[in-house]
Amino acid sequence: MIGDNIPKNKVYLVGAGPGDPDLLTIKALKILRQADVVFYDDLVSSRILGLCRKKTNLVYVGKRSGIHSCLQDEINEKLIEAAQRNKVVVRLKGGDPSIFGRVGEEYSALLTSEIECEMIAGITTASGLAASLGLPLTHRNYSCEIVFLSGHKKNGINNEDFKNLNCVGKTVIVYMGLNSLNHIINDLLNAGNARKTKIAVIQNVTLPSEKIYVGELDSIESIVLKNQVKSPAILVIGEILQFYSEMENLKKNYSKILQPL
Q1: Which pTM was predicted?
Q2: Is 226 annotated in the active site?
């Protein structure tokens, strides 16, 4: 358990969850409220940053429009320097830090510099969307496997992981895939997936502005373009979306029944 006073000269690699402050863990909240400095990314909502003390130094180290405010090596150095100044340091990342969050590079850099660090789990964006939308990630009749992929790799677009991917019986979750949507669709079609394979783009997961756009591999790009969907967004691909559509129809039918005459 985190007590009232937590060690200084230590870096906490904290998952901020998918955006809704209510989904922040108790442990993460306690650490945030004692932090001297918080280094945060784009995907951390302003409502979560607002939970920090007024005197906490908030330092943005994310990227906007593809432009990084800091390179990874620079972020590592900033974390080390802050810890060496006898600070309680938080590196705050959207979702869970261990999933496409480059936390391994920071963890390694800190330990190499003999800086104590601790990873604090966060609710993943995938888990957040499942609960928010009533979209289970697995179902015995639709999906018995979950695949987490990134639309980007260190040196650009992910050109490998989709080329031989069969989506049947799987729930495929793609982080950072919106800008690579065309490449992902082409790779999946070339891998033999049906053009009518269901795919959804969920924008602003768990936030009041959350929206879901459901289509198929041959239609989702036009849906995204028509609705001017922007990042942050996550992709879900697979038959589990058929279950989601069935449940949405049930909800509509129930609401009609419950409406007063």
Answers
A1: 0.89
A2: no
